[in-house]
Design a protein that fits this description.
The protein is α/β, with parallel strands linked by helices and 180 residues long. The protein folds into two domains: 101 residues, Hypothetical Protein, Haloacid Dehalogenase-like Hydrolase, Chain: A, domain 2 (2-Layer Sandwich), CATH 3.30.1240; 72 residues, HAD superfamily/HAD-like (Rossmann fold), CATH 3.40.50. Helix content is 37%, strand content 23%. It contains eight helices and nine strands. The protein is globular. It starts with a helix and ends with a helix.
Length: 180
């Protein structure tokens, strides 16, 4: 994967063990780091700038996913087709200019279900909120999948309810109205 990234000059984050590694400080990386700085310190993800993602591959136990970005959307779309065809990985769009790449079958919905079951709970009692393609598995597997108003129609089709967009207090309103 990292060889393909270098060959196609696509950049982003490599999620490993307990950190997010990046080689180039591109827009998505800066945007994600800025968002993370708003979180309480104990919840902030660790970002590490590295000289080479390729050199880091052998230094980590697990690579969870790649979050890739490019201002040239057609180039990113072409790259995802190569990744899916040559490597058999799954590419899910998580923002208008960002795609998540992971092993086929690794999804938010699957991981959420594993965690819920480990807690002795049922997915029928879970509410999940999402606004992009990488949220579909979670929306579909939760007892109550709720799509944000800014989601595409395709994402909304997998939800039982649709609320306001992600710049509004729709989640808080939904929780107050439906769960409390």
């Amino acid at each position: 994967m990292v060889k393909l990234l270098a060959k196609h000059q696509v950049h982003g984050l490599m999620y490993v063990d307990d950190a997010m590694l990046y080689q180039h400080d591109v827009g998505h990386v800066e945007r994600t780091r800025k968002w993370a700085s708003t979180l309480p310190e104990e919840q902030r993800p660790v970002f590490l700038h590295v000289a080479s993602l390729e050199q880091e591959v052998d230094q980590c136990e697990s690579i969870w996913k790649f979050a890739l970005t490019d201002y040239n959307i057609p180039r990113l779309q072409q790259f995802t087709a190569v990744v899916e065809q040559e490597l058999g990985l799954t590419c899910e769009w998580s923002w208008h200019d960002q795609v998540d790449v992971a092993q086929t079958g690794n999804s938010k919905g699957k991981r959420l279900a594993q965690w819920v079951e480990s807690q002795g709970l049922s997915m029928a009692n879970v509410v999940a909120f999402g606004d992009n393609f990488n949220d579909i598995s979670m929306l579909a597997s939760a007892g109550m999948g709720v799509a944000m108003g800014n989601a595409t129609d395709e994402v909304k089709q997998h939800a039982r309810q649709i609320i306001t967009d992600n710049t509004q207090p729709g989640i808080a309103d939904f929780i107050t109205r439906s769960l409390l």
